[in-house]
From TrEMBL:
The keyword Isomerase applies. It is an enzyme of class 5 (isomerase). This is N5-carboxyaminoimidazole ribonucleotide mutase. GO terms for molecular function: 5-(carboxyamino)imidazole ribonucleotide mutase activity. Coiled coil: none annotated. Catalyzes the conversion of N5-carboxyaminoimidazole ribonucleotide (N5-CAIR) to 4-carboxy-5-aminoimidazole ribonucleotide (CAIR). Pfam families: AIRC (PF00731). The lineage of its organism: Bacteria, Pseudomonadati, Planctomycetota, Planctomycetia, Pirellulales. The gene is purE. It catalyses: 5-carboxyamino-1-(5-phospho-D-ribosyl)imidazole + H(+) = 5-amino-1-(5-phospho-D-ribosyl)imidazole-4-carboxylate. Substrate binds at residues 19, 22, 49. The keyword Isomerase applies. It comes from the Bacteria.
Length: 168
């Protein structure tokens, strides 16, 4: 097995990122998936530095049982779009905040896909990563009533927390 091979998994969501340095952002996707009890795997897969590994991951994802891919990258953030070109699974893109341009470069790189290859693009940074996890769960909940109930509870708790501190 080489570093471009991906073994068997019981994960239904793949959380991938272009660099170890993206984990500080992408962990927010992983944490909400943990909270909702969604099995997921995490890997560094770089479109530029490990292109063969990226193609192997994306082209084998559906066969390995993954249902949704969350891909985060910063700067010239080609990972989500390139992954979407190698799989028909839904791909959710997270623009990681870059140092030079504060993530505007990442956002535009991810969102401006040519017609025919969709990437669901989230907000820049940690909110985007968290929402990517929630969106992945919403997609999976279309065919999973238990997960649907967990999402309903999550939203109710979030609403209650705001209402509890709404009056200053
Ligand atoms: C992208 O380049 C990664 O997604 C990362 O956000 C950015 C910078 O990578 P490092 O130089 O910090 O590894 O591929």
């Amino acid at each position: 097995m080489t570093k471009s091979d991906f073994g068997p998994t019981d994960a239904v969501v793949g959380v991938i990122m272009g660099s170890r340095n993206d984990w500080e952002t992408m962990r927010h996707a992983s944490e909400i998936l943990d909270e909702l009890g969604v099995k997921h795997e995490k890997h560094v897969v770089s479109a530029h530095r490990t292109p063969a590994r990226m193609v192997a991951y994306a082209s084998g994802a559906a066969e390995r049982g993954l249902k949704v891919i969350i891909a985060g990258a910063g700067g010239a953030a080609h990972l989500p779009g390139m992954v979407a070109s190698e799989t028909n699974l839904p791909v959710i893109g997270v623009p990681v905040q870059s140092r030079a341009l504060q993530g505007l470069d990442s956002l535009l790189s991810i969102v401006q896909m040519p017609g025919g290859i969709p990437v669901a693009t989230m907000a820049i940074g940690t909110s985007g990563a968290r929402n990517a996890g929630i969106l992945a769960a919403r997609i999976l909940a279309l065919s999973d009533d238990t997960l649907r109930a967990k999402l309903d509870l999550f939203v109710r708790k979030q609403t209650d927390a705001v209402l509890d501190s709404a009056d200053l």
